[in-house]
Amino acid sequence: MLTYGEGSSDRPRRSGLSGRLDRQALIGGSATPFSKGNYEANYTIKGVVIGGGYRHEIAVGWIVVGSGPSGNYSYGEIMGAGFKAASERDALYVVSCTFGVCTRMTHSPSWLLLIPARLDALKPSGTCQALGYTGALYTGVAGQSAELIGSIPLQSAGNVTATTCVVNGVPLTIRITTTAALSGKPLYQSILDINATRVSPFNGDTYRKILAEVKG
């Protein structure tokens, strides 16, 4: 079983935002119980593809992401495939299961990024609200992108933009929009929404449990 905790509609994961976001994020006038280096966040992931007069909505899945002094961990279900992962030093250990068949892998820790590295230099564009917190809104543009998120098996190509609401260094909402065109005429637009449903401090027990399981 890959599920930890209750339910599977809201779980978390780790983000690769730069330290600049940490310094500039707003805290809404009161201390938050989490920070970029000490959090566990549950996210739901939904997608929309628009083109040719059609609109198709996709329930991509859910993820839980934890980041703390010991390391990072994540688990969830993406497009029907369950996974769990934990980092130790410079290695990320991953177990992915589809239809009861599980595979062990080792990746770079960047595999857990919620936002592509090309979009890491996001620009401040105002304030935002998420889960009752006031945060800093950031937007970014990256030209062509063949792979939006390493751990989420969705691929697309086109003009990519990202918008994220960051609270105390933690992204609580992320929207990645890809617009594809041919000879100046729009072909389709895809929108990926990653929204936190809960955020709390890092859970050391969960990290140690997942690390032991994924390392075998």
From TrEMBL:
<protein>
    <submittedName>
        <fullName>Uncharacterized protein</fullName>
    </submittedName>
</protein>
